[in-house]
């Protein structure tokens, strides 16, 4: 299949990137991160989570973050909402998009959101309905689409089944998520083929963690499968507190570098993203994991 000429990048570092940080990242830093990402031209920034602060303390200041960011006209600011309580927070925070997050693995669903897949779908239904009534976009994330830390193999049919349930609820976009970064390109093709048999590929996104170093190859496989929306995180920050051992999302800098080499447009300012990755890493007192970001920074310093 021909590659797309343009790709939508959803920058998830303020949420997926920071949710797993042990030290609380000050609200000021989170706000600055979102504002810098907006200015760099990302069409969609995942800015916060409205989840239980006992489960994910790092995301407890989501309402403050959303209140203080400078919204760039046209940018979609997304937040995670596991239930109606989360939705009420998202509505009050004027989120442009909510994300319901289920899983293709029963074991992970229990660990992450404390309910079965069927219970999660029942919980999401009123959330999606309320969002639609309020004119808010809805994204449905499918965790463990390429493997589960507790259950191991996840059949592609299980992923397509959750996608179908989301579609029945009329979600706008469906995220195929490799939560623990175990997928390889062949499996990505199989999963994307199964999902795009039920969902228009234009509404499907790839959310790849890079634990096993496969994320760029997986994105290329997904591009070849007709997918044109990808989630990335500056400096490769990220990870789910309920997916032990999993590392961050694929680094935005690396993806932008690859897409530029493929002549695929994103509308995002690559040099600004390199700066943001270096700035955020220095705040966290460690070197970021983006190979392209670190290479450019080293070249600039030489
Ligand atoms: P629960 O304990 O079953 O919920 O947790 P509950 O309804 O029984 O409520 C228990 C307490 O939590 C109550 O407070 C509620 O008010 C409160 P208490 O009376 O004990 O003081 N509560 C809330 N507080 C704030 N916001 C809310 C909320 N809901 C309940 N929305 C629950 C169920 C879903 C709430 C919990 O399991 C939870 O918050 N889980 C979130 C887990 C999470 O955020 N994981 C990381 C994000 S997912 C991810 O990273 C994967 C992704 O990147 C894709 C991929 O890579 O796979 C998206
Ligand atoms: Mg994730």
TrEMBL record:
GO BP term, pick one: ketone body biosynthetic process
Database matches in CDD domains: DRE_TIM_HMGL (cd07938)
Pathway recorded for this protein: Metabolic intermediate metabolism; (S)-3-hydroxy-3-methylglutaryl-CoA degradation; acetoacetate from (S)-3-hydroxy-3-methylglutaryl-CoA: step 1/1
InterPro entries the record matches: Aldolase_TIM (IPR013785), HMG_CoA_lyase_AS (IPR000138), HMGL (IPR043594), PYR_CT (IPR000891)
UniProt key word Metal-binding: yes
SUPFAM superfamilies: Aldolase
Record field: catalytic activity: (3S)-3-hydroxy-3-methylglutaryl-CoA = acetoacetate + acetyl-CoA
Database matches in NCBIfam families: PRK05692.1 (NF004283)
Similarity field: Belongs to the HMG-CoA lyase family.
UniProt name for this protein: hydroxymethylglutaryl-CoA lyase
Name of the encoding gene: liuE
